[in-house]
Amino acid sequence: MKGKQKAESPSRLIDAKIEELADWRGRALSRIRRLIKEADPDVVEEVKWRKPTNPAGVPVWSHDGIICTGETYKDHLRLTFADGAAVKDPRGLFNANLQGVTRAIVIHEGDDIDGEAFKALIRAAAALKASSARD
Q1: 3, 35, 108, 132: least surrounded by Cβ within 10 Å?
Q2: How confident is the model at residue 1 (pLDDT cuts 50, 70, 90)?
């Protein structure tokens, strides 16, 4: 394919984004990513919505559809769950987008997320996607 560059893998693009952040946001995104992979070893990493104002795009984790995204901002991370309203959250991790279909977890510097509760949320979201895919 003359004239076309080989596309970088989404995993490498996410690695680069984490390295580029080089602060608490990068460490937090790296931990979140590890927890997602532990919770769902078959999760697919993607990068979506690349544009001039955000050339690195947004990390996305999918399994039979989007489970969640990992958006980075200057002072926080936002983990948006595509169908979060339908996912049980017994530990109350969702703290944003509490109206409508999506739900989000906003993380600020110094916040600690309960890893086991987060993995349970990922597993529940993946199970929801899997059941929707079978319907």
Answers
A1: 3
A2: very low
